[in-house]
Amino acid sequence: MMNTEVWTFIFVTISLMLYLYIGWRSRVQDSKGFFVADQGVPAIANGAATAADFMSAISFISIAGAVSILGSDGSYYVAAGSGGYVLLGLLLAPYLRKFGKYTLPDFIGDRYYSNVARIIAVIAALIISITFIVGQMRGVGIVFSRFLQVPIEVGVVIGMVIVAFFAILGGMKGITWTQVAQYFILIVAYLIPAIALANTLTNIPVPQLAFTFSDIAEKLNQVQVDLGFPEYTAAFTQKTMLDVLFITISGMVGLASLPHVIVRFYTVPNLTAARYSVGWALLFIAVFATTVPALAVSARYNLIDTLHNTTIEEVQNLDWATKWENTGLLEFRDKNNDGRLQLTPDMETNEIIIDPDIITLSTPEVAQLPPWVIALVAAGGVAAALSTASGLLLVISSAIAHDIYYRLINPEASESQRLMLGRIMVVLAIAIAGYFGINPPGFVIEIATLGVGVAAGTFFPAIILGIFDRRTNREGAISGMIFGLVFTTIYIIGTRFAGMPTWFFGISDQGIGTVGMLLNFVVSLVVSRMTSPPPLEIQKIVEDLRSPLAAPAPLQDIGEEQLD
Questions:
Q1: What's the confidence (pLDDT) of residue 147?
Q2: pTM of the predicted protein model
């Protein structure tokens, strides 16, 4: 009988060969195919690719783990993610598609008739994309480290090579169709263990119904209380109500403003397809988002039941525990030398140290599911990481090759020059991401904090005002984006990495993007009203953008000059 490692090797190899084949078949020879997939992606396929972007390593590997550790307080991850795509569908995507540009910096630069605004948008896009891609590479390293029994560093390098291949070769076209395949692989990989675990613990095979109608949450509450933890479903036990509110808002507006998600809506043929693709994306995402709370509660209950109060000898006989221990993400320390391991809320006495990033991936093993199910989850984790990493690489590539080099430095650059520079930027970006994937500044979902906060504090106000307020001018937008970008970045880096206290009413680094967004709005509106209004042709564009009677602007060629 084949063991988990053999099954994992088979599933991961087959899925990677599929991705590489798709990348090869979708290879492109021009910048339009490389950056926006020739704008020929059907709505349902774009919806699946968008959902795959959402179900990144951050979502697939880390969200259920974070919710499992935080309990009710972790529900903001699910609310923020789902709500962000609703905002994107209602307020941003259709209008950005109608504006007729290819990238978010393109929209910012042309709407605010300013190269300075374009450069600020590029800087923010690079910060966001680098932080997110680091999380993806870290996720790949964790999967390969456990299931292929290689060091995390080797796992990260393997992921770097694979992502770089189909991102360089196929561009956005190859990435899009790869993500379609990846969505269906990773959603199946996520649902199977969730269904199996729900059925085992509650005799209800539908995770959402098991979470709602069984007593699993009440059982976990009692277990938590017995161990000295707060009840799992008790609210605001680890974070304040204000902080949870601000984290949720920051996550929603930040996710709605992510450049690698927004660019997906430039790949469809027309405005109608953009609207339909949002609907498909929400449907595909809902399948995942409603499963997360159910999987989180079942996984935590099962993990505590399996590990707490076990003997050292019993743990050593658990093959999965030993292999996760080898990765350094699971530790057992018999601090009182009584031969048994205790899980407690006090870090001084706690003897079982669990990295949140292993909870989703280890769940099938803890539940003693068949090896092929465990391997399928591993393949899903790889798919989740690679799908988003590839899209992020294209954002980085287009920011440098198109928005900076071609639009600002060398407007006479040939098609081949732009394509070559774009591919060089992919290699450089993947090298940087690989380094931080090997030397991460936090666990996977923490790494994304900076990116979401910067998107909330920098992009969301600029996009909303650019669509709905014709009076917002370049002076206002530039001032607001600089203020939001600098404030949010300094606060996050200071509180997360430099020991700075959360001095703004106790708001954590995860929620400060909301404050940055509000400050950006205020500065943009005030400065705009104190300076000259935008040119009349810009005001007319903004009016037509929201008018159902006005025809969409034709999508501009990659090389069209700016208004100024």
A1: 73
A2: 0.85
